[in-house]
Design a protein that fits this description.
The structure holds three protein chains of three kinds.
Chain A: E1 2-5, H1 6-16, E2 19-24, H2 31-40, E3 47-50, H3 54-66, E4 70-75, H4 77-81, H5 84-92, E5 98-103, H6 109-113, E6 124-126, H7 131-148, E7 152-157, H8 158-162, E8 164-167, E9 197-198, H9 212-230, E10 234-237, E11 244-247, H10 250-265, E12 270-275, E13 277-279, H11 283-291, E14 295-298, H12 306-314, E15 320-322, H13 341-352
Parallel strand pairs in A: 2-3, 2-4, 4-5, 5-7, 6-7, 11-12, 11-14, 14-15
Antiparallel strand pairs in A: 1-8, 6-13, 10-12
Helix pairs in contact in A: 1-2, 1-7, 3-5, 10-13, 11-12
Chain B: E1 16-20, H1 30-34, E2 40-42, E3 54-56, H2 65-69, E4 75-79, H3 82-91
Antiparallel strand pairs in B: 1-4, 2-3
Chain C: E1 9-11, H1 32-45, E2 52-56, E3 71-74, H2 80-90, E4 95-101, H3 102-108, H4 110-118, E5 124-129, E6 132-133, E7 139-140, H5 159-162, H6 168-173, E8 178-185, H7 189-207, E9 212-218, H8 222-225, H9 232-238, H10 240-243, E10 247-251, E11 254-255, H11 258-278
Parallel strand pairs in C: 2-3, 2-4, 4-5, 5-9, 8-9
Antiparallel strand pairs in C: 6-7, 8-10, 10-11
Classes of the chains: A alpha/beta, B alpha+beta, C alpha/beta.
C-alpha cells in the first residue's frame, strides 16, 4: 500500500496495464495526471508528449495506437471538446484509445456517453467512485479497448484527481485472450503487396476486397450493439424492498452509497444503483430497482444529464426526481459543498418522505 | 492494362522507343510539350475513357521526359545503347 | 515490342514499385501523381520500403492511400504531422512521412506542422501545394496567391479582403527543429527530376536522425484553376511559382535567401534542358 494522489495512482495503473504512450495538454484538474505520465513513462521505455493543444494530443495518440502500442490521452471536459472529431474517427478506425476525463464535475456525462463528435459512434465509459476502483477500471479500460478495438473513456473528477488514498497498484490479468494486433503498422510490409492500412474510411488497399463505407459503418454499429449487450457494469444495493432508489455514479455515487447504508441502518427502505459503466448504461438494473419502488432519485453534480438515461430505464414505473445540482468550489473547477454526507442525507430523506427538497448550498465565496 | 502499341520510333538515328498504355491515358497532353524532340502527337481516335492519347513518331531519344511528366503512368521507355546503335548503322 | 533488336535497355519505370496500380482518379493534368512518383521512388531507391510508414492527410491524394504499397495510417484533415509524431515516437527506427495538401497543411493543420517542425520531430512532411482546395473543386487556401481566381475568390484573391498567402516553406525554415526544407515543383520533366532529388535528401536527413525535414511540391491543378490541362505548367509558374520560390530553402541548418534560390533556379533549369536534349536525365 502506498499513499498516492489519485492522478498518480491512475498513471501508475495505466503503466501497469502496459500503456507506453501518453499525450496531453495541461488543464485543471487533469494536469497532475499529465505530470505523472511525463515523469514516469520515459523510465518505462514509454513516451509522454506535451502536445501543443488537446487536438494534437489526440492525433499523436492515434499515431501511437496505429503501431499497436497501448496509448492514451485525456484532459478535462473542456479540453476533450477539442478532441471530439478525432475520437469519432478513431472509433471508426477501430483503434483502442483510452481517454481520461478528469472532469470538473458530472456535467460531461452527455459528452462522454453521447459524444461530442459526429456520426454513429460509441465509447465504453467507466466511472470509478474512488482511487482503488480507478486503479482497477483504468487497467480494465486498456483491456476492453483492445478487446473491442474501440475507445474507452475513464470518467474521473476533481476529487479523484486531487485527493490521496493508500492504494496498491498491481497489474491485473483479465481473463479472455485479446485479439491479435495483426493490423498494427511497423513498416515491414512495404513493397510486398501486403502492406497494411489503418483508416476510418472502410476501404482496403487496391486489389483487396474492400467493404466500403456503408458496410464498414454497419459492422461497427453491430459491434457497439454487442458491447452494449455484454459489457454493462453496475453496483446496486438494498433495492429488493426499497421504496426510494437513488441512482448516482462516481465519487458522488460513493457518498450516496454511504448515506443509503446509514438510512437503512435506521430502518428506512432506501436503495441505490451505482452505474460503473455509463455506456453501456445499466438500463436493466435501473428498471429492476424501479420495479418495486415508489420513487427514483438521481443525484448528480450537474444540472441533470444522467437523469435522461435513468428515465429510459425506469420507463414510467415510478417518478424520477433529480436531487443533485450544480455545485462547484469558488474557482468553478472543483466539487462544491453539495458533496457532503449530511447534505445528501437531507435530500435523500426529503425525497423519501415526499417533502420539498432543501435549497442547494452555495459555495463559500469569501476567499 | 490494355496495352496497345503505337510506337513508330525505329529509324536508324533513333536511340529509343516507348510503349504507351493508351487505355489509361486521360488526354492531358502534358507529354506533348515535355518531349524535347517533339515526337509525340495526339491520336485522332479516343480510348475507352473517351480521351485522345499520344502516339510516337520517329526520332525518340529514349530520354524518358514523357515518363517523368505523365500523371497517369502511361509510358514505358526503352533506349538502344549508343554503341549498339552504331553497329546497326554499319550492318545496313 | 516492334524492334527485333533485343539490346533495348529499359529506362526508368512506368509505375513506381510502391504503387499497386497505375489507375487513380486524379483529374487529367494533375501534378500530384508526378510528385508522388518522386516521393515513392526515393523511398524504394534508398531501400526504405520495408521501414517506412506513410501518414496521409485528406485531399485528392487521399485515394493514393489505397494504392500506395506502404504501411499507411489515414489521418484526419490537417492532423497528419501529429499522427506521424505518435508513430515515429513509438517506432524511432522507422521512416515516417506525411502526405498533405496546402489546404490540409497550411489551412487546417498549420499548428500541427509548425509544432512538429519546432519539436524537430524526425519525420518528413510532404506538401502538395496547388494553391487551391482541389477535392472540393477549386477553393481558396492559405497559399492561394494574390489575384488568383478560385470559387470563393471569383475576382481573384484580394489582400484587403482575403489577406496574403502564407509561404509555409519559408516559415518552417526559420524553426530551429527544421533541418532540411525544400520547395520543388512538377511543371516540367526537369523540375520533376529535381524534386525527386529533394525527396531523396529529405529522407536521408531523416535516416541520419537530423531532425524535421520538409518537401513542398508545387503541383498543377487545371480543374481547380479553371484552365485547360496543357496550360497548367505555365499558369503555375506565373502564379504560385512567382510567390512560392522553388529551391532548397534550408540545408544543414543554413537558410538560403530568395535571391540565392532565384540564381540557383536559372542555373538548374538550363542544366536540365541540356540533359534532356542530350538524351535523358538520371533521376
Amino acid at each position: 500500500m502506498k499513499l498516492m494522489e489519485g492522478s498518480e495512482a491512475i498513471a501508475e495503473a495505466a503503466i501497469a496495464a502496459g500503456c507506453r504512450f501518453f499525450a496531453g495538454y495541461p488543464m485543471t484538474p487533469f494536469t497532475e495526471l499529465l505530470e505523472h505520465f511525463a515523469k514516469r513513462l520515459p523510465d518505462e521505455g514509454g513516451v509522454c508528449i506535451n502536445a501543443e493543444s488537446e487536438l494534437e494530443a489526440a492525433g499523436m495518440a492515434w499515431g501511437a495506437l496505429a503501431t499497436g502500442a497501448r496509448a492514451a490521452t485525456g484532459s478535462t471536459g473542456q479540453g476533450l471538446s477539442l478532441m471530439q472529431e478525432s475520437f469519432s474517427e478513431i472509433t471508426l478506425a477501430e483503434l483502442p484509445l483510452v481517454i481520461f476525463n478528469m472532469a470538473r464535475g458530472q456535467q460531461d456525462y452527455y459528452q462522454s456517453t453521447r459524444g461530442g463528435g459526429h456520426g454513429d459512434y460509441r465509447h465504453i465509459v467507466l466511472a470509478p467512485m474512488d482511487i482503488p476502483e480507478a486503479v482497477e477500471l483504468t487497467q480494465l479500460a486498456f483491456h476492453l479497448a483492445d478487446k473491442w478495438r474501440n475507445p474507452v473513456l475513464v470518467y474521473g473528477d476533481y476529487l479523484l484527481a486531487h485527493t490521496h488514498e493508500a492504494v496498491d497498484v498491481n497489474p491485473i490479468v483479465f481473463d479472455g485472450a485479446l485479439p491479435e494486433k495483426d493490423w498494427a503498422l511497423d513498416g515491414s510490409l512495404g513493397g510486398t503487396g501486403q502492406s497494411r492500412l489503418v483508416s476510418p474510411l472502410g476501404f482496403e488497399k487496391s486489389g483487396r476486397e474492400s467493404p466500403g463505407i456503408e458496410a464498414h459503418l454497419r459492422r461497427i454499429s453491430a459491434k457497439h450493439a454487442e458491447i452494449s449487450a455484454t459489457e454493462v457494469r453496475v453496483e446496486s444495493g438494498y433495492c429488493d424492498d426499497a421504496e426510494t432508489v437513488i441512482v448516482a455514479f462516481g465519487p458522488p455515487g460513493k457518498f450516496v452509497r454511504y448515506v443509503v447504508a446509514q438510512l437503512r441502518a435506521e430502518g428506512e427502505k432506501v436503495g441505490y444503483v451505482r452505474p460503473i459503466t455509463l455506456w453501456p448504461f445499466p438500463t436493466e438494473a435501473v428498471a429492476a430497482a424501479a420495479d418495486g419502488a415508489t420513487r427514483v432519485g438521481v443525484f448528480e453534480l450537474c444540472a441533470g444529464q444522467m437523469i435522461d438515461d435513468v428515465r429510459l430505464g425506469v420507463l414510467g414505473r415510478a417518478p424520477v426526481v433529480g436531487i443533485g445540482g450544480i455545485s462547484t468550489d469558488a474557482s468553478g473547477f472543483g466539487v462544491g459543498p453539495l458533496l457532503d454526507v449530511e447534505i445528501i442525507r437531507e435530500r435523500v430523506f426529503a425525497l423519501h418522505r415526499d417533502l420539498p427538497l432543501p435549497s442547494l448550498p452555495d459555495n463559500d465565496r469569501s476567499f | 492494362m490494355g496495352l496497345r502499341l503505337t510506337c513508330g520510333g525505329n529509324t536508324l538515328s533513333a536511340h529509343g522507343t516507348v510503349i504507351i498504355d493508351t487505355e489509361i491515358c486521360k488526354g492531358c497532353e502534358l507529354c506533348i510539350e515535355a518531349c524535347p524532340p517533339r515526337v509525340l502527337t495526339m491520336s485522332s481516335v479516343v480510348n475507352r475513357l473517351g480521351y485522345q492519347y499520344p502516339e510516337l513518331q520517329d526520332g525518340c531519344t529514349g530520354c524518358a521526359a514523357c515518363q517523368l511528366f505523365c500523371p497517369d503512368f502511361v509510358f514505358e521507355v526503352f533506349r538502344r545503347p549508343r554503341a549498339a546503335a552504331a553497329t546497326t548503322k554499319e550492318q545496313s | 515490342m516492334t524492334s527485333t533488336n533485343t539490346e533495348l535497355k529499359v529506362i526508368g519505370q512506368q509505375l513506381p514499385d510502391l504503387l499497386l496500380t497505375a489507375h487513380h482518379h486524379m483529374c487529367p493534368g494533375c501534378g500530384e501523381p508526378l510528385a508522388l512518383r518522386g516521393c515513392l521512388e526515393s523511398i524504394s531507391d534508398l531501400g526504405l520500403s520495408q521501414r517506412t510508414i506513410a501518414v496521409a492527410g485528406i485531399g485528392c491524394y487521399t485515394s493514393f492511400s489505397m494504392t500506395t504499397d506502404l504501411d499507411l495510417v489515414q489521418a484526419l484533415h490537417g492532423r497528419a504531422p501529429s499522427v506521424a509524431t505518435g508513430v515515429k515516437r513509438m517506432l524511432p527506427d522507422s521512416i515516417v512521412y506525411t502526405l498533405q495538401g496546402d489546404g490540409d497543411m497550411v489551412n487546417e493543420g498549420l499548428q500541427e506542422v509548425l509544432h512538429a517542425a519546432a519539436r524537430g520531430e524526425n519525420i518528413t512532411c510532404v506538401l502538395l501545394n496547388n494553391g487551391v482546395f482541389g477535392e472540393t473543386g477549386g477553393h481558396m487556401t492559405a497559399t492561394t496567391v494574390l489575384g488568383q481566381r478560385t470559387k470563393n475568390s471569383l475576382e481573384g484573391r484580394d489582400p484587403t479582403y482575403h489577406g496574403f498567402p502564407i509561404l509555409i516553406g519559408d516559415l518552417i525554415a526559420q524553426l530551429e527543429g527544421a533541418a532540411y526544407v525544400a520547395r520543388g515543383s512538377v511543371h516540367n520533366a526537369g523540375s520533376v527530376a529535381r524534386t525527386a532529388k529533394m525527396f531523396r535528401r529529405a529522407f536521408e536527413v531523416q535516416m541520419r536522425g537530423e531532425g524535421f525535414s520538409f518537401v513542398e511540391v508545387l503541383t498543377m491543378c487545371p480543374t481547380g484553376w479553371f484552365i485547360p490541362t496543357i496550360e497548367g505548367p505555365q499558369y503555375m509558374q506565373d502564379t504560385l511559382g512567382e510567390v512560392h520560390i522553388m529551391g532548397e530553402l534550408k540545408v544543414d541548418g543554413v537558410i538560403h535567401t530568395t535571391d540565392e534560390l532565384h540564381a540557383q533556379n536559372v542555373l538548374k533549369a538550363a542544366e536540365m534542358e541540356k540533359a534532356l536534349a542530350r538524351g535523358g536525365i538520371d533521376t
